[in-house]
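seq:
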Amino acid sequence: MPKTANHTSVEDLNRANLGKLPEHLGLMITEVADGRVVGRFSARPDLVAHTGYLLAGAVLSVADILCAYGVSTAWPEGASGFTTAEVKCNFTGILREGEAICTATLLHGGRTTQVWDAAVTDAATGRLMAAFRCTQVILYPRT
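struct:
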């Protein structure tokens, strides 16, 4: 496994949210550790579809954001950036109101790729709402 370093914190990521999609979604980062990022957001009326349920796109976006933020917790030595290569999300539940918790965890941390999983759960019941997985390609300066 390559040598990695955590280059972020709860405060850094909440600051990064400001003025961008994560702030609009109401995403609040609550925990940052090596290979793990946790956040919460609410099922506000503007994030609920005409069906009365939280928009799938909002759930998917939060999971993707937290996995991307997670790369900063397992930054490979010498890396200069990353890009998403693939995402997949299976929806297993719904939320009409209340809060959701998203927990992103590093499944594979290689030198050229990272695979992240995120579980989105109903904060009140702990019930799984979505299982998300993405692959990040780690970029290095060209020599």
